[in-house]
Amino acid sequence: MRTELSFSSLTEIQTELLAVTAVDIQTAKGRDAKPAPVLLTADKAVKAATTAVLTSGEFKAGANETLLLHAPVGLKAKRLLLIGLGKQAKATVNHVRNAAGTAVRFTKPRGIRELVFALPEAEFLPQAEFLPPGPCVRASVEGAFVGDFDPDTYRSDRKDLSVQSFTVAGPAGADKKALEAAFNEGVIVGESQNFTRTLVNEPGNVLTPTEFGKRAAAMSKEVGLECEVHSTEKLHELKMGAFWSVSQGSEEPPALIVMRYEPEGIKDEPVSHPTDKDPSVGTPVIGLVGKGITFDTGGISIKPADNMEKMKYDMAGGAAMVGAMRAIALLKPQVRVIGIVCASENMPDGKAQKPGDVQTAMSGKTIEIINTDAEGRLVLADGLSYARQLGATHLIDAATLTGAIGVALGMVNAGAFSNDDETYAKFQEALAVSGEKFWRMPLGEEYAELIKSDIGDIKNTGGRYGGASTAAEFLRVFAEDTPWIHLDIAGLAWIDENKPYIARGPSGVAVRSILEWVRSYSA
């Protein structure tokens, strides 16, 4: 998709479709309350062209609500699309992101291949600061890329409905240099999120662990990352018994993907695992660790047949790390980053591990296998240990780890866990930029008690209740004293139904949040 930032008057822009946002500013409550939609533009011609429909009550400016006008009087655009952001009191930059996605998805089935999205102008409204121009520009571009993605890759009769040109129209009096920088960031982030979605969308017979490694390596070469892809021999060399135990039941060899980002100008200083409380201890090195199960049958503890086809998405955490590393390489924060993806299949074979087996992780901890379908935490255990060995001083992992997180939070929030409040505070700040929804979940000694093993150090499940927290507590053992965040994205990594701003299928969740968290450590 070709993208452009323009500062031309909306009246003079010639385009197939001009999209303009609106909010509902009504504050009255009760039975007599009526929507009061207001366009977020100062353009007089646009306002004149929409006066009748805004006063008719036909358009209420609800979130992602749309209304199309053909041949709008006084404009050179062939069509004018109104998109609601909802009530002003609740509207955020993320609503703008979704509105841009809605505009793109509105055009695709109608054969419209170009559109212009007018940046919201809210200076004339109370609390106008709720939609700052810079973040809105970046969010608009991100939303457009997200909206343009469709998962029908392998249809023999697939028609290319992608939008060819997306332009953001900024106000003439804006800080053009600042908006251009934000716009360029949006392109990088949007493309990186879609790169993740492309990986997650691939079927398991195409994206094997080996192929996953090849694509990560190709991306790394393209953007200037160092990348190594190892397999069985390296796992044995590193004594990654937990990781190997998952992959040993598959004919497909595992892939240990290691990506490194080394910014220019960072001084080499001794690193001794600094914390956010005392960052002077050494130069931070951020470790990203992703679960990359390219297909999960559950192993010997096999899953039900219903919906098993979706288990190609069980590498979404690893794909999020690959997408985040792409964005990091292009945006160039001043902080070292190591990205690790532990890629494997989980299959029921004569060589597969069994419930009751005891495995020895890279750290030396012994793990009693209770359920072979709790395999993601096993590969992450060795991934976290390896990241620490390579010098990571701050850790974040992402995984489609538990169904329990969806039971707890629904398909609304992903789960987040951390062993350090100040580290998590940085992540919370990152969410304000990313617009993604994560909810912090509890850890604690009570959960740790549930995974103590009679025969080994720990077991890989803690029973039916509190499953997301016991899984996170398992990973905490391997993060040790390193400041660490765990993201359980099982509920949000795959979207079951189309939304106005995003297609059903892989979401690319966590890419934006991980990126912003990493950037918070930039020197």
Distance between the termini: 33 Å
What value does the Rg take, in angstroms?
24 Å
How many alpha or pi helices?
14
Q: What is the overall shape?
A: elongated
What's the total count of β strands? Answer: 20
List its salient traits:
alpha/beta; eight-stranded mixed beta sheet; seven-stranded mixed beta sheet; 20% strand; 523 residues
Q: Could you give the topology of this structure?
A:
Blueprint: E1 2-6, E2 18-24, E3 37-39, H1 44-56, E4 66-70, E5 79-87, H2 93-107, E6 114-118, H3 133-148, E7 165-169, H4 176-201, H5 209-223, E8 226-230, H6 232-237, H7 241-247, E9 255-261, E10 285-296, H8 316-331, E11 336-346, E12 358-360, E13 366-368, H9 376-389, E14 394-399, H10 404-409, E15 414-418, H11 421-434, E16 438-440, H12 445-450, E17 458-459, H13 467-479, E18 484-488, E19 494-495, E20 505-506, H14 511-519
Parallel strand pairs: 1-7, 2-5, 2-6, 6-7, 10-11, 10-14, 13-17, 14-18, 15-16
Antiparallel strand pairs: 2-3, 4-5, 8-9, 9-11, 12-13, 15-18, 19-20
Q: Can you give a write-up of this model?
A:
The chain is an alpha/beta fold and 523 residues long. Helices cover 34% and strands 20% of the residues. The chain has helices spanning 44-56, 93-107, 133-148, 176-201, 209-223, 232-237, 241-247, 316-331, 376-389, 404-409, 421-434, 445-450, 467-479, 511-519, and strands at 2-6, 18-24, 37-39, 66-70, 79-87, 114-118, 165-169, 226-230, 255-261, 285-296, 336-346, 358-360, 366-368, 394-399, 414-418, 438-440, 458-459, 484-488, 494-495, 505-506. An 8-stranded mixed β-sheet has the order 8-9-11-10-14-18-15-16, with helices on both faces. A hairpin with a 5-residue loop joins strand 12 and strand 13 (366-368). It is elongated, with a radius of gyration of 24 Å. The protein starts with a strand and ends with a helix. The model is unreliable at 272-277 (pLDDT under 50).
